[in-house]
Amino acid sequence: MFMKIIVAKDPKQAGMKGHEIFADALNNGAQVFGLATGSTPLTTYEQIANSQLDFSDRLSINLDEYKGISPDNDQSYQYFMDKNLFSKKAFKHSYLPNGLATDDAAEIKRYDQVIAENPIDLQLLGLGLNGHIGFNEPGTSFDGGTHVVDLTESTINANSRFFDNIDDVPKQAYSMGIGSIMKSKKILLEAYGEKKADIVAKMIEGPVTEDVPASVLQNHPDVVVILDEASASKL
Ligand code: GLP
C-alpha cells in the first residue's frame, strides 16, 4: 500500500495543502478532476477559488447527487458546487449525476460513459462517519460503477444538519462506484475533526473490508490523505 499522510494544523491549513495537490496535478497536465461535496472540501475549494489556477480547459466529474431534488434546490450537490466552486472557478464542462432522472438505468449508463470517456486524473474524496466515500455505504462492492444508493440512517442523520427537517433529507442518491473511484490515477482524501478520528484510523490501519469502504484505498497505488491534528489523533 502507498498512502501519503499529511497532517495539517487545522482545516484551513489543510485546504492550502489540498490546493497544492490540485495545482501540481493541473501543472502536470491532469485533464479530468473528480470532485466531492460535503463540508470537508470547502477550504480546498476556497483556496482554489482565490488562486490563479485556470481550469477553463479541463473537465470535472462529481461523485454523487441526491435523487429527487432539482439542480436549483439549494440542497442539491449541483447547487453546492455552483456556489462553492464553479461560480468562481469554471471548468470547460462539469458533470454531475442528474438528480431528477426518472430512468435509473439510463442515468447510470450515461454517467458510467462520462467516466469511461474521461478518465479521472485526480479524484478528491471526503469521508463519511461510517467510512463511506462518495455515497458508497458500508457493504458496497469494491468493483462497482455508478448506482442508486439507499442512504443509511447514519448518513441521513449526519446530513440532516443541512436541512430544516430530517424528513426533507433525501433517502436515495446516485453515486459513482468504488470501482470507478479506484480507477482514478491519483486520489486525494480529506478528513477533519475529532469525530472522524476513529474512522480515519480504521481506513488507514484497519483491515481492507467492504464494511469500511474507504479502507479500499489501501489497495490504490497513489493516495494522499490530508488530515488535521484532530482527525489524526488516533493514528
Ligand atoms: C456526504 C457526501 C460525501 C462526504 C460526506 C462527509 O455523505 N456524499 O461525499 O464525504 O458527506 O461530509 P462532510 O465532509 O461534511 O463530513
UniProtKB/TrEMBL annotation:
GO terms for biological process: carbohydrate metabolic process; glucosamine catabolic process; N-acetylglucosamine catabolic process; N-acetylneuraminate catabolic process. Catalyzes the reversible isomerization-deamination of glucosamine 6-phosphate (GlcN6P) to form fructose 6-phosphate (Fru6P) and ammonium ion. CDD domains: GlcN6P_deaminase. Keywords: Carbohydrate metabolism, Hydrolase, Isomerase. It holds the Pfam family Glucosamine_iso. One of its GO terms (cellular component) is cytoplasm. GO terms for molecular function: glucosamine-6-phosphate deaminase activity; identical protein binding; isomerase activity. The keyword Hydrolase applies. InterPro entries: Glc/Gal-6P_isomerase (IPR006148), Glucosamine6P_isomerase (IPR004547), Glucosamine6P_isomerase_CS (IPR018321), NagB/RpiA_transferase-like (IPR037171). Its EC number is 3.5.99.6. The active site is at 64 (proton acceptor), 130 (for ring-opening step), 132 (proton acceptor), 137 (for ring-opening step). It catalyses: alpha-D-glucosamine 6-phosphate + H2O = beta-D-fructose 6-phosphate + NH4(+). Pathway: Amino-sugar metabolism; N-acetylneuraminate degradation; D-fructose 6-phosphate from N-acetylneuraminate: step 5/5. This is Glucosamine-6-phosphate deaminase. Residues 27-220 form the Glucosamine/galactosamine-6-phosphate isomerase domain. Belongs to the glucosamine/galactosamine-6-phosphate isomerase family. NagB subfamily.
